[in-house]
Amino acid sequence: MKEESQTIRTKLAKIRFFSPEGFFVCAAIITVIFVAMEALGLRSSVAVLAGASPGAGAPATLGMACLYLLGYLAFVVLAPIFVMGSIFLLLVNLITGIFRRQQRHF
Amino acid sequence: MQRTASIRFASRSKRIVLGVVCLTLATAVWLSFMHVFFSTGCSDYYSEDGTGTKARQLAARHVALWTKPHLGRGEMARMRSSCAEWDLMARTFFVLALTNMSLREPDKQQLYLDVADRIIGETIRLEAEEGIYHFLMDYGQYGSFVNKPARSLFLDGEIALMLGARQMVKIREDYRPLLSQRVDMMIDYMSRSSVLSAESYPDECWTFCNSVALAAMTISDVLDGRNHSDFCSKWVETAKGELVDPQTGILYSSYTLDGVPKDGPEGSTVWMVSHCLQLVDEEFAKDQYIRAKRELARSFLGFGFAREWPESWKGPRDIDAGQVIPVLQASPSSSGLAFVAARSFGDTSLLKALLASLQLGGFSREKDDTLTFYTCNQLGEAVLLYSMATGPIWQKVKDSQPATKHQSGK
Predict the structure, then answer these.
(1) B98-147 confidence digits (pLDDT tens)
(2) Domains of chain B by range and CATH?
């Protein structure tokens, strides 16, 4: 079990950022962080922005609201871009791979 | 060795360039289509017949705030600490929403009317016990009203509108004199000014409050058979001549009793004005809506919002319109009221664009068959709910008026 998790960690460490896997892992990390924020109930903290929260004005509440906002924006803007970028890069690699194989064949 | 390193470097550079290109392409595609994912489910909010699911959930939350006072007290207090005006406005918009929903959902009519009556009763009681300043911002007490005894058309208009809308669903005998007395009072005070407007604050008339008063008068006429249409027509003619910003053609939002402009055309005013004037002069109302849309409605990546001020306005700015989001100049209060106007004029494209923004930035949460938007206060939600419910009351008033009423100049 310990060996298995170490293998996964080694595999993850080897993933390059500018690769389909790299982009996909970024999207996954953002999603996990956002889901965790949701599970912790941080969504309600954004009420401070409308002055409709009991803790409005408290730095801690404001900090949580900002943190949640960042996580939310990353989830709705960055995560889909990373997933799409991953698919595009995968397609490019596939096409160039096929092209290279054809060149070798001829 | 050197050759291997240079090949590796070239392949790494190629990989990075390809990655950046793919990410750029993905960014372009996602930002262009993101709004589509947020503008779905329009029918959950806006239903032509009946009430959308989300509207019912939002109404359920607000009904609970009024029927279980311990829930609503805190929220109202927090809102009042920002702006006392918002307290009365939240009541008005919620009563307007409830009365419209009473006609949309006859099975829930009694519940909605009970809550509306509770709000109207408490508002009139507070006005009587605490005085007009209870619902006004502090600066209302710094000057003295020109017309004596001091009355605020902000209160008179909104209370009259609540009384009128409630009775458009079902007449209440004890409300009849309350409405007609208030209408008489409004006419009396408005007639004293050269621009047929009454003060909301000392020597400060608001187009918002005056148009709300005109709508209330029109509803009152339908209910008691009197006729104030000449007065309303005169108000519109005077406004066209003296209260319009020459650059945009939009009505000023505030002015002195003599008609000297104070605040310029304002989003949180003109959207509601165009909605209210639909009962008085439909052609002029539509003209104001079209101009407001041209000057104030904006879209960024398909997400709609409304500015508080037209780009051309360089004058003083109102302080009670809430925060404005910098750079985009997006105003939550103007955008909220734009929902009401867009719905009233059947502008589905603007409504969808605004809805996309609401679903992106409203941070809604559904719980126990209720819906809340964390970034809206009680007033914001009441305005949104009214935009979802509006229609039946205005239609009933229009249907009860003579056919020539809604055409300008007739």
Answers:
(1) 999 999 999 999 999 999 999 999 999 999 999 999 999 999 999 999 99
(2) 42-294+388-400 (1.50.10)
pLDDT tens per residue, range B46-72: 988 888 999 999 999 999 999 987 777
Residue A56: closest CA among chain B residues belongs to which residue? B78
Tell the residue number behind the tokens 């409504």, with chain if given: B351
Q: How far apart are CA B74 and CA B92, in angstroms?
A: 19
Q: How confident is the model at residue B197 (pLDDT cuts 50, 70, 90)?
A: very high
Cβ separation B375–A17 shorter than 8 A: no
A85:B22 CB<8 A:
yes
Give the residue numbers in B contacting A (CB under 8 Å), as ranges. Answer: 15-16, 18-20, 22-23, 25-27, 29-31, 34, 74-75, 78-79, 81-82, 332, 360, 363, 365, 374-378, 380
Give contacts of B30 with chain A, Cβ < 8 Å: 77, 80-81, 84
- Contact in structure between B151 and B185 (CB atoms under 8 Å): yes
Contacts of B20 in chain A (CB under 8 A): 18
Are residues A52 and B376, on separate chains, in Cβ contact within 8 Å? yes
Distance of alpha carbon B220 from alpha carbon B170, whole angstroms: 13
| Cis peptide, bond prior to residue B149, ω within 30 of zero | yes
Q: Would you tell me how many other CB atoms lie within 10 Å of the CB of residue B29? A: 15
Is residue B176's pLDDT more than 80?
yes
Of B29, B363, B380, the CB nearest to A84: B29
**Domains in chain A: boundaries:** 21-105
Which helix (H) or strand (E) segment is B222 a member of? Answer: helix B207-224
Q: What is the distance between the alpha carbons of residues B4 and A91, in angstroms, rounded to a whole number? A: 27
Contact (CB, 8 A) for B344 and B390: yes
Rounded Cα–Cα distance for residues B184 and B190 (Å)? 10
CA distance readout (Å), B217 to A106, B88, B113, B224, B228: 87, 19, 21, 10, 7
0.85 surpassed by complex ipTM? no
Given an 8 Å threshold on Cβ–Cβ distance, is B376 in contact with A82?
Answer: no
Q: How confident is the model at residue A17 (pLDDT cuts 50, 70, 90)?
A: confident
CA distance to A18, A81, A92, A99, B21, per residue, from A88 (Å): 12, 10, 6, 16, 9
